[in-house]
Amino acid sequence: MKLLLDEQIDVRLKTALSGLDVYTPVDLGWQGLKNGVLGRKLTEYEFAFFVTADKNLPF
Whole-angstrom Cα distance, residue 56 to residue 59? Predict the structure, then answer.
């Protein structure tokens, strides 16, 4: 199961989520992408979860 941690989430969370395929935007070269582009990438690369603290992101 693939999970993406948004840029503002502490990367140390990756180690706490062992057993999952956890990525950050830096891991994928996606840092700085706008929400719309990032949303399309999440779908395209079949991520199951996206962890963010962004209050401007629609559900």
Answer: 9
- The residues, ordered by sequence, that sit 6+ positions from 20 with a Cβ below 8 Å of its Cβ are 1, 2, 3
The three-point CA angle 33-36-39 to 5° equals 85
The domain limits of the chain are: 2-51
Q: Could you tell me which residues are beta bridge partners of residue 47?
A: none
CA distance 57 to 59: 7
Pair of tokens at residue 20: 């999952």
pLDDT tens digit at each of 59 positions of the chain:
899 999 999 999 999 998 899 999 999 999 999 888 999 999 999 999 999 988 876 65
What's the predicted TM-score (pTM) here?
Answer: 0.85
